[in-house]
Design brief:
Layout (H helix, E strand, L loop, with lengths): L1 H6 L2 H23 L5 E4 L7 E7 L9 H14 L9 E4 L3 H13 L3 E6 L4 H9 L3 E5 L5 H10 L3 E2 L2 H8 L8 H8 L10 E4 L5 H12 L5 E7 L3 H8 L31 E5 L1 H15 L5 H19 L4 E7 L13 H6 L5 H13 L11
Parallel strand pairs: 2-10, 3-4, 3-6, 4-5, 7-8, 7-10, 8-9
Antiparallel strand pairs: 1-2
The structure holds pyridoxal-5'-phosphate.
Pyridoxal-5'-phosphate binds next to α9.
Length: 372
């Protein structure tokens, strides 16, 4: 009698049923979603080199953080950390918060995004429109502490910076690397020379770097980062305490310090890109692709051209794959507003000329530029 009572503990059973229904909702969402496109571009200066851009802006929540948010909710549920009626919190400067708010609403949970008060107003509105609460913190260095306070009061901390590297199934499950390699199957160069991405949480680079090794591909991983970021200094010296030597205007990447998810050993090369070059490249991508993407997509594009120029100089052919990380509409009042650029003392004209020269002649965009 006693053991039967324990077996059918109604509260535990109800909790278990809720977790099952939440997991079913995430699986249904995944089944409804299409994979993101891999767009191909070729440029006159780079004969024999194919460029591919994975359009992560086409996720329902507009960025590659859609994948991360889905993984973080799955990880919390499967670890028994997330229960019916529990609030959910994370520290995020925007893209992750938008995706997490979307999934929280789907699961009927209250979501709190802890953000620096200086976050782009459009991103704050996006989180609020999805029913999320934005807890704005004046000092950006305090966001983690504030998220921990919410967690101490009972909220489930999704913890993108702490868990991004492990929440994603790097061996497969259609992670971003498996998806890219699968989509290249029928191409002339199905095994890319390089895959290029940035580092925010470090989750994307960790997944790609591990997957390339696991599948025994010859492709190498390049991290494209704003000049002087924490990742740049940390990768060089393998120093977990490295900090950035300069701030960046590019959202989503260029962290001020080394995050727990930065796996330096799976990264073969780091290319540093000045902010004005990234912004000029984001403008140019709009012309090339007919759609706006964010600043970190521009950073990736500059690094792709840098790598292509050295391939060309060695007479090497092959393919280079990179990511379009988020929608450019989010930056209409910032990176895509000429008066905002002027107020931040950014002149994209010399970089625009350098990038166009690179596309036309196959030279590196960074050596030819007059300013850094
Ligand atoms: C998060 C983010 C990145 C970096 O991806 P991680 O997997 O977090 O390293 C790049 N661009 C944008 C716009 C992002 O939001």
């Amino acid at each position: 009698m006693d053991s039967i009572l324990r077996l059918v503990n109604p509260q535990r059973e109800a909790e278990r049923r809720w977790v099952h229904s939440a997991l079913a909702k995430l699986q249904q969402e995944s089944a409804r979603s299409a994979d993101t496109h891999l767009l191909k571009l070729n440029f006159p200066g780079f004969h024999g080199i194919d460029f591919y851009f994975k359009d992560e802006a086409s996720h329902p929540t507009g960025s590659l953080k859609h994948r991360l948010a889905r993984s973080l909710f799955l990880y919390a549920l499967c670890n028994g950390r997330l229960r019916d009626g529990q609030a959910v919190v994370d520290a995020s400067s925007g893209s992750t918060a938008i995706s997490e708010a979307w999934f929280a609403r789907m699961l009927g949970l209250h979501f709190i995004a802890v953000m620096p008060a200086c976050t782009a107003p459009g991103k704050i509105r996006d989180v609020q429109a999805l029913g999320g609460e934005c807890d704005l913190v004046d000092d950006p260095a305090q966001v983690h502490a504030r998220a921990a306070e919410h967690a101490a009061r009972g909220a489930c901390h999704l913890d993108q910076f702490g868990l991004a590297e492990r929440a994603t199934d790097w061996r497969g499950n259609n992670n971003i690397a498996e998806s890219i390699i699968g989509q290249l199957a029928l191409e002339a160069e199905p095994e890319p020379e390089w895959i290029v991405c940035g580092a925010g949480t470090g989750g994307t680079s960790a997944t790609i770097g591990r997957y390339l090794r696991y599948r025994r591909l010859h492709s190498r991983l390049c991290v494209a980062e704003p000049a002087g970021s924490g990742f740049v200094h940390g990768w060089r010296t393998r120093d977990p305490h490295a900090v950035a030597s300069q701030p960046t205007l590019i959202e989503g990447i260029g962290r001020p310090r080394v995050e727990p998810g930065f796996l330096f050993d799976v990264v073969d090369r780091v290319v540093e890109v000045p902010d004005s070059a990234s912004i000029a490249a984001a403008w140019l991508l709009e012309e090339l692709l007919g759609r706006r993407y964010g600043g970190s997509s521009g950073t990736n594009f500059v690094a792709c051209l840098q790598l292509a120029a050295s391939m060309r100089a060695r007479g090497q052919r092959g393919s280079i794959v990179s990511l379009l990380c988020d929608r450019g509409e989010r930056y209409a009042q910032t990176l895509f507003d000429p008066s905002w650029l002027a107020a931040h003392d950014i002149d994209i004209a010399p970089w625009d000329a350098a990038l166009r020269a690179s596309l036309a002649t196959g030279t590196t965009p960074m050596a030819t530029s007059p300013t850094a």
